[in-house]
Write a structure and sequence with these properties.
Largest sheet: 8 strands, antiparallel
Shape: globular
Distance between the termini: 25 Å
Strand content: 35-45%
Strand order of the largest sheet: 2-4-5-6-10-9-8-7
Order of helices and strands: EHEEEEEHEEEEH
Structural class: alpha+beta
CATH superfamily: Mog1/PsbP, alpha/beta/alpha sandwich
Radius of gyration: 15 Å
CATH topology: Protein Transport Mog1p, Chain A
Length: about 180
Amino acid sequence: MRETIDTLPDPDARHGALLAGLLSLAVLDASAGEPFAFDPPPFLGRPEVVRAATGNTWQFGGDTRHPSARLLITLAEIPAGMSEADTTACAEAFLEQIRRRRRDAFWQPETPALRLGNREVASWRWAGSFDQVPATGLVACTSITGRFLAVAFEDSISGAPQSFPAIRRALDTLDPAATEP
């Protein structure tokens, strides 16, 4: 089943403005329409949309087969003082948010790059734990016509070997060009 997606959110002193803008006036909306097409893996449910003043995030959660799996897709305006080239700062904002939730988190650049539709995007793999449950994830960010498109997904260490390949394949169906005004 083909789903359609809306927009997403992002965080450091430099990242703080990005995160603050994205999270200001955030509202959860489970019924919002989406501006681009995406085929999620069958174990991810319909997204809930977090709307903010400068962008939106689609949150997909796992079903009983992958209860710890989570995928976030964020589309947000690029904050003043940043440029479309600041995609690393965008990704670092997400990674710093992960570190706030998982104090033992660490990350490193991931190869190969993550494919988002027809784009290859630099990504960072992270690992850490929450409530003593080890987890891992991936964060990537690119720019599209004055906006950041960020993707973050995670799962438990035991679930990731099955869920991550399916999420990566699904992200191949994401068409970032379709988000251009």
